[in-house]
Amino acid sequence: MQELTHYINGAHVKGQSGRFADVFNPATGEVQAKLPLANAEELALAVQIASDAQIGWAATNPQRRARVLMKFVDLLNRDMDKLAEALSREHGKTIPDAKGDVQRGLEVVEYCIGAPQMLKGEFTDGAGPGIDMYSMRQPLGVSAGITPFNFPAMIPMWMFAPAIACGNAFILKPSERAPSVPLMLVELLEEAGLPKGVLQVVNGDKEAVDAILDHPVIQSVGFVGSTPIAEYIYGRGCSNGKRVQCFGGAKNHMIVMPDADMDQAADALIGAGYGAAGERCMAISVAVPVGDETADRLIEKLVPRIEKLKVGPYTAGNDVDYGPVVTAAAKEKILGLINSGVEQGAELVVDGRDFQLQGYEDGFFVGPHLFDKVTPDMDIYKQEIFGPVLSTVRAETYEEALKLAMDHEMGNGTAIFTRDGDTARDFAHRINIGMVGINVPIPVPLAYHTFGGWKKSAFGDLNQHGPDAFKFYTRTKTVTSRWPSGLKEGGEFHFKAMD
Questions:
Q1: Which of 112, 166, 246, 281 is catalytic?
Q2: Residue 411 parent element (H or E)
Q3: What is the pLDDT of residues 335-372, one digit of tens each?
Q4: CB 145 within 8 A of CB 223
Q5: What CATH code would you report for 2-248+457-480?
Q6: Where exactly are the structural domains of the chain?
Q7: Phi then psi for 297, rounded to 5 degrees?
Q8: Is 238 labeled as catalytic in the residue annotation?
């Protein structure tokens, strides 16, 4: 049995708390590693080391910091296969999905190579008589990130890349369910030239999280996960005077208009609803066809596509569309919500509850499910299922469909499929959701834009990556400067009046 470690001060360090968590292989259900869970003392040690290391790192000019990230990108590409295999082994997602996870993180690292440009301040010459004014962006000091299991490469890089590009040190507390890739990432960054102590990995559960939120030296905290935990972290972190950004759950709607290309819409829903077993905060979990005829045509297109989906372990290669969910508890929750949907009157058009994979009977596999005639009062509509389940809510009109998405408490992402530009423009302008796709099912912005939802999907003023990241991980200091000027008269130096 492998025993994993923390990564502190440039070295793998065994846990001292005596507490461990099991790390599973989701395909087999077997425990493949033990993960140490840090206590407050272990976290405090990492923070002290980070605080000391940050001083020299902040004094390193932004161009040299950017060169470390440039080298890191090269190493990520070099080890892409190795990272993807480790990620799939702990998460369960297919190798192509795992490579996509790494790639979308890598793209944010590439954006952060532009740190010298992003960190430039402003200058006003002659703001007053002999007075100049300028601003500078300076690092916060020590920052921390608490990241989820579903993107164990991408989300950590979305946090630590801009943080260290800005001159901060960073403490990463990854998910206990998929901890290996974060440990590999910090090794690669140090190989790229990052000084030891600037990025450290401290594994743990709520005890470590609370220690992060309460530690006075940590200046900012980022989080991605469920909404209840996002609310908790945001409240406790802010009450302790920290800068906090938290991203929570989602219930993403895709409106399908009568004029939509129905094959295109169905294909989009298959990828967005069932890819990565639905364990994405940007997954489409609710299809909203407008009109019964549209709904019937959409269901007719979806059913054969869903029935052809291949579910299996990542080791099956490209023959698999999606793999297992991450834990037995996740599987139990998903199946419980599916049963509640049936009990509450939804029509289960495709039923995957009895799915079994020969040779992997103990794995955490969930077959694909499709519901029709779901209503907003049902649990499967109100809650984030985070599994391979697509719910169809029929709307009579465009306005009714729009209202469904706008009234839901989550506001992470949404999409509309239509051929009508006026409808698409109206949707984009009126919808109260942070990320919008027009004939694009998963509208995750590229690295040079920002990622973030609205309503109960996000807490904090700034989004992830893009320009917002450089604002989040720095403070602005403004300097007003006046130097007295003098004239030499008769060999003596006389100061001019300053006012």
A1: 281
A2: strand 410-411
A3: 999 999 999 999 999 999 999 999 999 999 999 999 99
A4: yes
A5: 3.40.605.10
A6: 2-248+457-480, 252-438
A7: -65, -40
A8: no
